[in-house]
Design goal:
globular; 26% strand; 27% helix; 5 helices; alpha+beta; eight-stranded mixed β-sheet
Length: 231
């Protein structure tokens, strides 16, 4: 994929926060395309032993969930662990992986937050601006906001709210299984983001694109750690 150079990654924590405040003003919230055929999933893993970041991207064709492309990347960890700034730690590896993607997806689902973030710019939102592609965040846990419990049946959902603003959807993707936390990234909105995640969960709690991306990045990390390592 052809990606724009949105900004430099070599920043301090204060510069990263300032960048987030600047970038959030560029985010567009709008319904996802109605004719989605290619959906990508992206996930990230870390190795503390080697101080490396790994990213995997899989492009799937709907409605069969057929994998049409799979790529990965690994780079030295570029940024310290700072809550609220994880996209600066994970983003460079994700960008490197997407540069290797040949089939541009209609939308990308990230294992992480979109606008359900203290400054409304989680990984899915940040990467959406880099990719210039619709993105959705689907996280396994809540970062910010409050909610009541959704009903027990698959498809039931409730708003995720912070100070009266809806920043996400708490979505039950399997009956009587813990919900996921869905939020728009870029060029998406609350309703269509949640609908897409539910559509991509035919059998499991997690959407098929990010579930497969998780397995892929885990294999990538394991293969790397099984190698000789740096000289």
């Amino acid at each position: 994929m052809d990606l724009q150079q949105l900004h430099d990654w070599d920043v301090t924590t204060e510069q990263a926060r300032e960048l987030q405040e600047e970038l959030r003003r560029r985010v567009e919230l709008r319904p996802l395309p109605s004719d989605i055929r290619l959906v990508a999933g992206a996930d990230v893993a870390f190795s503390r032993e080697r101080n490396m970041v790994f990213a995997a991207v899989l492009v799937l064709r709907l409605p069969e969930f057929e994998v049409v492309e799979q790529v990965g990347s690994h780079i030295p960890c570029p940024f310290p662990y700072v809550p609220g700034l994880l996209s600066f730690r994970e983003g460079p590896a994700v960008v490197e992986a997407f540069r290797r993607v040949h089939r541009r997806p209609d939308v990308v689902i990230f294992d992480g937050q979109g606008m359900a973030h203290p400054r409304r710019i989680g990984l899915a939102t940040h990467m959406g601006l880099w990719l210039r592609t619709p993105t959705v965040g689907c996280a396994k846990s809540r970062l910010v906001g409050e909610h009541v419990s959704p009903g027990p049946e698959k498809g039931e959902r409730v708003p995720l709210l912070e100070e009266g603003e809806q920043i996400g959807v708490v979505l039950r993707t399997r009956t009587e299984v813990k919900p996921v936390f869905v939020s728009p990234g870029h060029m998406a909105d609350l309703e269509t983001a949640a609908d897409l995640v539910l559509r991509c969960c035919p059998r499991y709690r997690l959407p098929e694109p990010t579930r497969l991306a998780h397995h892929a990045v885990s294999r990538l990390k394991a293969d790397y750690l099984a190698g000789p390592g740096p000289e």
